[in-house]
Amino acid sequence: MASGWAAQSTAYADLHRISFARCHNMPDFIGRLRTAHYRLSTTGLELSESQLVYVLLAGLGIEFDSWISDVRERAKTPSFNALADELVSSFPHMAKPYTKPAMLKASCSHCGLDHPSDNCHKLFT
Description:
Blueprint: H1 5-17, H2 26-42, H3 49-60, H4 65-72, H5 80-90
């Protein structure tokens, strides 16, 4: 791993790239945030509690807007650990549905290769 400023900037960017949309479920999302925060702290750069809470809230996505609004209305800013525990207990199995990428082509019904059936070389032989 790079040292000094390069290591800090890489670890900082990695932490901010984590989003619930790219995780399997809520425990996975929280685990990735904790791991990235630990890696950042090993570079000597520490985030305040409120900065870490911001990263968590920012990574949730629009499907959590109502929950995030409720958190923001609380009298006192909750800790990262309190919010993480609340999310895992409230949404333990919530996961992003898997969608097949549009770029994947179905196998040809004529020859089994990865191209559209109407373009098969067997049709032209």
